[in-house]
């Protein structure tokens, strides 16, 4: 087969289903993966709709894939054709200073497949095949379906933000602002890690209903009540951790307003260049800690696979829609609606 079906973004709001050349594993460490499932991330949607502008055209989006090794290149010894795998979208050199200290997602020579961040962006997984490096591939446990395995990358981001960076402890009172798919994953990680009171905040009653079904102890809709007042009724001492997983700048401002002394707060969801203000003296007095979490790394991916394989986080429960690649335009239309969670594309 010389060509394959792919969703190619030629300009903002110009996503086309086309036949393009099938990639091959020609360079050292290359692997080609036959894509079985790929989640749609909000950053994919923002790129397609022009909300995120750091895109070079033409571009094949999709950075949450699972699949089967179709071809391996020179030097690949840990994978063979037929292996079922999970793909980390980011790739790293292993030699720069950042890689040497374990911050591979800061790699000075990084690439991404179908995502954003590094300068070097390779074709992504809204296609039948995708080329990447063997260091970005993980063996898929047989107990995980391809659809579930495709959620490894977003789950790894949730683990990295809540556990690795914000260092959540058993019994911590946690607030998650925005409980779409990534917020639900942050919430489910917090629940699995032993959160005490766990408040989900969202303007959507649909999202709050899902959050309560998946482990939130309370739901707050700021469109219907004073969110800060309600949070402090539930948590009189204030939250130990606040995770902003929504995206809009209003969510970040709410997070800032909810802090008390010692609160750890994680700027997780916003990806657009918008500003918010901090009172310097008050922030100094609160002695809290701001974290942020972008992308993933091998540690977070490995932890995420373990969480799913051990049954600690049931990511299948947040998949609301599945579409074949041929219907990706329908999938993107659903992405723009409020009553959906994770959408998976099955090439």
Describe the structure.
With 347 residues, the protein is of the alpha/beta class. It has two domains: 3-150 and 314-346, Quinone Oxidoreductase, Chain A, domain 1, CATH 3.90.180; 155-292, NAD(P)-binding Rossmann-like Domain (Rossmann fold), CATH 3.40.50.720. Helix content is 28%, strand content 26%. The chain is built from eleven helices and 18 strands. The protein has helices at 42-49, 97-100, 146-149, 152-165, 181-192, 205-213, 227-234, 249-258, 280-286, 298-309, 328-335; strands at residues 3-11, 14-21, 30-39, 65-72, 84-87, 90-91, 111-113, 120-122, 129-133, 137-139, 174-177, 198-201, 218-220, 241-244, 264-267, 289-292, 319-324, 342-346. The strands form four sheets. Strands 3, 4, 5, 9, 10, 17 and 18 form a seven-stranded mixed sheet that branches. Strands 13-12-11-14-15-16 form a six-stranded parallel sheet, with helices on both faces. Helix 9 links the parallel strand 15 and strand 16 (289-292). Helix 4 (152-165) packs across helix 5 and helix 4 crosses helix 10. The chain is globular. The protein starts with a strand and ends with a strand. The mean pLDDT is 96.
